[in-house]
Amino acid sequence: MSDFVQIAENLAAGNKPRVRELVQLALDQGESAKKILDEGLMKGMGIVGGMMEREEIMIPEVLDVAQFMSHVINEMLKPLLLEGDMNPYGKVVFATVQGDVHDIGKNLVIMMLEGAGFQVIDLGIDVPPETIVESIRENQPNMLGLSALLTTTMPMIKTTIDHVIDSGLRDQIKILVGGAPVDQEFADEVGADGYAPDASSATQLAKSLAN
Amino acid sequence: MSHKGLQGGHYRPLSCEQVESLHAAALSVLEKTGFSYEAGLDETLEMMEEFGMRVDREDSRIYFPREQLMELVSKAPKRVVLYSRDGKNDLYLEDDRVYLGTGGAAIKILDLETGEARHTTLQDLYNLGRLVDQLDNIHFFLRPCIPKDIPEALYDENVFYACLKSTAKHVMAGVNDFDGFHKMMDIASMVAGDLENLKARPFVSVIASFAISPMRLCTHSTRIMLEAVRHQIPVALSCAPMAGVSSPITMAGTLVQTHAEQLAGIAICQMIQPGAAVLYGGIPGRANLWNLGYQGGSVECGMMNAAIHQLADHIKVPNYNSSGLTDAKIPDAQAGWEKAMTTMLAAMGGSNYVHHAAGMLNCMITVAHEQFVIDDEIIGLSCKVLAGIPTDPEHLALDVIDDAARGADFIKS
Ligand code: B12
Questions:
Q1: Is the pLDDT of residue A1 over 70?
Q2: Ligand 1 centroid, distance to B362 Cα (angstroms)
Q3: Under CATH, which number does the domain A90-210 receive?
Q4: CATH architecture of the region A4-85
Q5: What is the pTM of this model?
Q6: Are A174 and A157 in contact (CB under 8 A)?
Q7: Which atom of ligand 1 is nearest to the CA of A181?
């Protein structure tokens, strides 16, 4: 039996050569790529998420680990994985709403979601509701993330959600909202499914809504 | 006694050679990297081409040849006067003269009764204006919070009305759109008597975040910036990169990028109206690498905000920047030292118009009444430092020493 805990812990500690060795060893021992991904690498990213929340690891290091993990997946596991294995939680379409150009927080949330195993389609900043609806139609995600940093663009969250409702797509997705001026009360008011104040809790929330 | 408009410049983090080399680096960034732009700026792009800038429409990129660029930049006035309504707090922005005041667009306030953070209201904005009007060391009133209790579409006219009604000090704010800019103009003209009076002594000015760092023109804010220029209202060209996220983690890299962004913005304004009153609005900031929050209270922010004044002074344009930011959530020890440190450095650097210097907490999200009062003290003491130590005969006090040594005392003399 392979030691998945070792993979997770070495990933979280940033011991890159050791992670590659351990993944290779597990493959040689006949472990399934999916199991290595779920119980090794993903668990490791989970540890990193916790460290980030407790401010035990800096964001550039988190990014470094996340990028390394995706290299390992692409180079060593991808050919052995089935469609769907890579993104057990599904797809998220993410955008900063129209009129708003703030994206530092959005990008951080996206990075953590990707690290946790979501596939994210990032539509960028200043995104009109029509573009968002179009992307939902085209990509069929199970989740939508909307970010707004200005009190003047918060109403655009509502407008966007209303567009989604009018297009008849509301039932097939969960909607998450966030950004500095956004709070739970606002999220309830506009009929979102969830709100989170930072990237770690956003990831927890997304996971819980995906299941 | 209020020490406003004193000469700073005692703290110069960059040597003359360093200023030259950062300026040269910024020019080459504008030539080689240039600016990207958003859709909707067609007319502005055509104008830029007429002035010799190179626009690559395929790649959505503008390149700024240094000679044409600096020719335009040299047209910006070296002195901008921002008036007060009653003439008691006019701000003569030039050289190393230092003024400090409020800033931001906070959305929360620590409630006076409960101490809890709650949403800001129009009444809060008015009350803070009254408070600042009475605090001598705060030299201007940049709207410190936004009225969350009224519809967004009514912000601009209500913000300017509340500010102008509550204080006679200079009023500055951002506007949401063209319409808001013109509503502001209507109200300010009414207060001034007519439009001509307002243009002669503008006691209001606007902020436009024309650039999205790194090196990108924001259509919406660029249009507001140019509309202000067309109407002869002074405008602060805000760009606020955060080292580590939207500019290099190094201080030098962040300064070069900020300076390049400013040179471009100033040049564009001068194309519309040579001699237009603009403030160099580079605000070098920093990201907190634990969570990417805005780390305005770091000592590097104090250093970089002093350095950016040197770069503005190098091209002879008065500058607008920041001090007094903190990520502390309440007026505590951390808030105290971060504010004192950054405000002192910005003032000693000779920054002309330092906003955010009073009232701000929690990475610009929150304000507190008591914080304005504390910061009034910090600003006063920082300006006191600028006044230096006079050594004329009266201050040398030789007679007093002599008398005391012969038996009189210092307390009575
Ligand atoms: C950096 C910044 C900018 C940069 C943006 C650069 C960029 N690429 O994003 C620039 C300089 C361009 C900018 C411009 C402006 N800004 Co600004 N800006 C900020 C600042 C200082 C930091 C934002 C930030 O990046 N924080 C760090 C990240 C990591 O945190 P975050 O964004 O909150 O994201 C976290 C959470 O909120 C959450 N989250 C975020 N999105 C989502 C989405 C979901 C689904 C979930 C679950 C969670 C989630 O997780 C994130 C990670 O932990 C804030 C102040 C602040 N404290 O928020 C002001 C602030 C937001 N800006 C403000 C203003 C006024 C402006 C301007 C209007 C200024 C002007 N006068 O022109 C322009 C508007 C431009 C526009 N149309 O959008 C005000 C807003 C006030 C208001 N009315 O609401 C603020 C609050 C500052 C202030 N008090 O003055 N700004």
A1: no
A2: 13
A3: 3.40.50.280
A4: Orthogonal Bundle (1.10)
A5: 0.96
A6: no
A7: 84
